[in-house]
Design a protein that fits this description.
Elements: H1 15-20, E1 31-38, E2 44-46, E3 54-56, H2 58-71, E4 75-81, H3 98-109, E5 114-119, E6 133-134, E7 137-138, H4 140-157, E8 161-164, H5 171-181, E9 190-195, H6 202-208, H7 228-240, E10 244-248, H8 254-263, E11 268-272, H9 274-285, H10 291-305, E12 309-312, H11 315-323
Parallel strand pairs: 1-3, 1-4, 1-12, 4-5, 5-8, 9-10, 10-11, 11-12
Antiparallel strand pairs: 2-3, 6-7
Helix pairs in contact: 2-3, 2-11, 3-4, 4-5, 8-10
Length: 326
Amino acid sequence: MSYPTHRPQRLRSSASWRSLVRETTLRPASFILPLFVDADDGAHEEIPSMPGVERRSVEGSVALAVGARDAGVGGVILFGIPEAKDERGSAAWDPEGPVPRAVRAIKREAPELLVWADVCLCEYTSHGHCGVLTGDRVDGDRSLPLLAEAALAYVTAGADAVAPSDMFDGRVGHIRTALDDAGFPGTPIVSYAVKYASSLYGPFRDAAHSALSHGDRRAHQMDPANAREAMIEAELDELEGADILMVKPASYYLDVISNLRAHTDLPVAAYQVSGEYAMIKAAAANGWVDERSVALESLLSIGRAGADVIITYYAREAALWLKGES
């Protein structure tokens, strides 16, 4: 058919028509809000490179989690900032560390809110790498038992899911076995299945105090040039027992999200990372873009690509925008 027989504009002629035939809809319940939990009970510090995001104490993190719940956000994901770091990252599995304490506190105040715990050693090691070192090399195999120990500490504290973000081969299977053996076969694993060695993580390193003392993460995180390899990574994690597969970052990798959606029947998550958030904030602060419309459009594009769950620092704000409350 051709003009004038077919007029696509007919179904765009009013807000009611556009709403009726809309293919992708954002839901606050599909958002996950990242929280940076500081072991310091007095912590309340804004992160300069991420306006609106703060490092908070356990008590302060509970307040943020409750605010997210009240806005309709589906859950939170916790990143810990310990009092002290060492070469093994032993604070990661301390039952009195910031994440287990925050998990227990949030579940007391907001039991219906999903609480995920990120599992990685980068925030806890003195060198900033995601695992232990053998010489100057990150040793993924030696790190697997430590990651499993951290995951078990978080689940024992009451975490609804653990999310291994290290990208070491075999970590999903190792964590699945550890949780099952400890009596937690029902706890889901949200795998950072496709995590790229991206240049967009800089503000997160400031927030989590996880800058590297040397080297980089390109030997275990994915090459941004590769898309087919992403499907291999995701399939391996699915076979090892992952329940949700994640792509990180999101906006620069919409093709990968779409490909993954077509390759799996598992839920797909995507992480709108610190650099993506910071760029929108910076452009809005300079008056170059309208923050609300650009932020929502960015989230819509991630959902349109196929993400069922979106981790975003905009979670609470976007939820309120969608509800018309802000």
